[in-house]
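Hi U.,

Before I forget, here's the chain from the pilot set. I'm dumping it here mostly so it's searchable later in email.
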Amino acid sequence: MIIPPPPILMRPVKTLKKSGGKIAIIFSNRLFLSKAVGLWTGSDDIEHTYTVGCYLHYCNGGFKDIEAEDLSTRKQKGNERVIVGDPLYVVTAVKT
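Structure:
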């Protein structure tokens, strides 16, 4: 599936939620390089969550309390907690 440009992609989001409603956009960093846009392939996971949050902020949909969370399953390995399986992230917001 090819994702349309952000303004077109986010257009229906503005009309989907009532005031106080919550939206959650869940994504992984897995992709097909030949299909992904440079903005996505040239950034890391933190920047991906920022990009999705910006889509919500700038879509004129009236969203507040935009937050991102790492939902990846992690396992302790020495002093680190490494991701097990695919990374998974969610960006949430509340409709004003």
